[in-house]
Amino acid sequence: MHTPSGTSLPVVPAALAPVLPSRYDSGVVPGPGAGIRVTSDSLPGLESVAPGDPDSIWLYDALLGPHSADIVRYLGLARATGGPVLDLGSGAGRLTVPFARHGFAVEAVDRDATALARIETWARRIGPQVAELIGTTRADLTELRLDRTYRLALLAGAMVSAVPPRARPGLLREIASHLDTGGALALDYTSHLLPGLIAEPQRTWAFQVPRFDGIDEWVVARQVFDLRAMSERITYYAARTGKLSTERVVLTTDKWIIDPEHLAAELHSAGLHIEGRRRHRIDERTESVLLVCRTDG
Question: Are 235 and 204 contacting, i.e. CB atoms less than 8 angstroms apart?
């Protein structure tokens, strides 16, 4: 359950009380936003929030789970291009492991060692036929250096918006230079309409994190857009209540607002052209955009 700001929370106001920002910061508490009408499967953040501790994995999965339908689209593309596949910002392997189960060799790259360890554990549990197809590399995308070529590279789950604009052209060039002839880069991002950002630069969600370990976790997520910097910050205020105590945790992720024209120019400069574009409307102000890019050679 998650509710946009400006909407009442029936039944659970007491459960939400421990996670309100005022309980974490004695300073000025941000006022409520005007609210945004989002579909029931849309939450801000995606892969760009790294688990701050092992217990944050449940929140991480909650942010990613509703978007797992993109696996089908990316798998279809992999069948057309073939492998090996490069999964950039792989997280805990929501794409890496299913791709390996379908027979593709996959290199998973992420900055978070815990996430990569989860991939390896998951793969081993399935069996050696999957584990042997997966390689993991711990690296920040802003400093990525590749040493082999791939048929398909993925920047899934809006990962491109987690890369600082100054580092994005270099990352795209590095990817393009390690794609085989006929290979592809597939990426997606959230496209925000400017009038919507001006009308509502601050947004708030409240939702419960699905957990199966006896812990009750509620989160208030505060999303703030900075149009001058073309950036956004999302802060997650979480309260995890067990039988004996309640733990409060704050996680923050910084992202950048994608300008489609600038991104297209950066792709072109990297030697990539946009072969296909698919849009999925999230609400009247926001849509998800999937790009499939090919090398110019």
Answer: no
pLDDT in tens, 157-200: 888 988 999 999 999 999 999 999 889 999 998 888 888 888 88
What is the average pLDDT value for the chain, to the nearest integer? 80
Q: Are 285 and 225 in contact (CB under 8 A)?
A: no
For residue 158, is it left (φ>0), alpha (ψ between -120 and 50) or beta? left
Distance CA 273, CA 255 (A): 24
The token duo for 144 is 């990525």
Q: Which residues contact 208 (CB under 8 A, 6 or more apart)?
A: 1, 2, 12, 15, 216, 217, 218, 219
For the ranges 3-17, 52-66, 118-132, 260-274, the lowest mean pLDDT is seen at 3-17
Query: Which residues have CB under 8 Å from 203's CB, separation 6+?
Result: 4, 5, 33, 35, 36, 44, 222, 223
- Dist CA 296 CA 1 (whole Å): 45
